[in-house]
Amino acid sequence: MTHDELMDLAERILTEEDDEVLSGLMEQFDRNVPHPEGSSLFFYPEGWNARNGGLAGYAPTAEEVVDTCLAYRPICL
């Protein structure tokens, strides 16, 4: 998927209200980005741990999530 296609998909994820449709969109997003947390980043910050704080201030844009996912590079040992 191109960056623009991922942006369109991300916008749909952020606005979708039907849980079944949302699940399918998130699966599609995860198949097309290298980040292991992928679509979870729409709802939780990268590496989020409930013991470290709340989510009240977390509201990423579609562009922030897409850019974070595309910038991810796995550690090669």
UniProtKB/TrEMBL annotation:
InterPro entries: Colicin_E_sf (IPR035900)
Domain of life: Bacteria
Gene3D superfamilies noted in UniProt: Colicin E immunity protein
Name under which the protein is recorded: Colicin immunity protein
Species assigned in the record: Neisseria elongata
Upper taxonomic lineage: Bacteria, Pseudomonadati, Pseudomonadota, Betaproteobacteria, Neisseriales
